Amino acid sequence: MGNTEKEEKLTIRISEEDLLTIDQFLEEHTEYGSRSEFIRGVLFDFISVKTGRTSKYYYTAVNTSKGNKENISISIPTGLKDTIMAAISSGVFTAYEDAIEEILKYSYTEKYVYTLVKKRIEEQKNLEQLLDDFARRPRFISGRNATEEERKEYR
């Protein structure tokens, strides 16, 4: 899933000591892909705690297959993130990346992806049919009934 949202760059100043603390934390908690990933996650968690609303956790992975480097950002609901983190703490997964990879593989092998794609295609067909039906109806144009010629235009 590519990130299609426009992203803004944010610059912060932080002491070397604090940066060292963050880097040490990241060495032990590999579920965060980068400093940016860590800071983004912490910010959304903080907002969630302060507002009482569920926020999303953003996970960024780097796709290095075939020599390509592509950042892929996916939003993960807080409840799922918490479940994954609990599973990591209890030793079910070794790292956040492993959990995400296994969840995606499972979704694919259990045909959840196929089912979702099939459902979306069916919804699109239904929408196209509704639009075709709508286009065939006589219309009112500029506050008056459409002429027979104008009706033919919509058929």
Short summary of the structure?
The chain is α+β, with helices and mostly antiparallel strands and 155 residues long.
Describe this structure in words.
- With 155 residues, this protein is of the alpha+beta class.
- The chain has 2 domains: 1-93, no CATH class; 111-155.
- 56% of the residues lie in helices and 13% in strands.
- Strands 1-2 form a two-stranded antiparallel ribbon. It has a two-stranded antiparallel sheet with strand order 3-4.
- Strand 1 (56-63) and strand 2 (70-77) form a beta hairpin.
- The longest helix is centred in the last third of the chain and has 25 residues, at 112-136.
Quickly give the structural class. Answer: alpha+beta
Question: Mean of residue pLDDT?
Answer: 76
Shape: elongated
Q: What percent of residues are in strands?
A: 5-15%
Secondary structure: elements and pairs:
Layout: H1 16-28, H2 35-51, E1 56-63, E2 70-77, H3 78-89, H4 96-109, H5 112-136, E3 140-141, E4 144-145, H6 148-153
Antiparallel strand pairs: 1-2, 3-4
Key traits:
155 residues; alpha+beta; 2 domains; two-stranded antiparallel ribbon; 6 helices; 56% helix; elongated
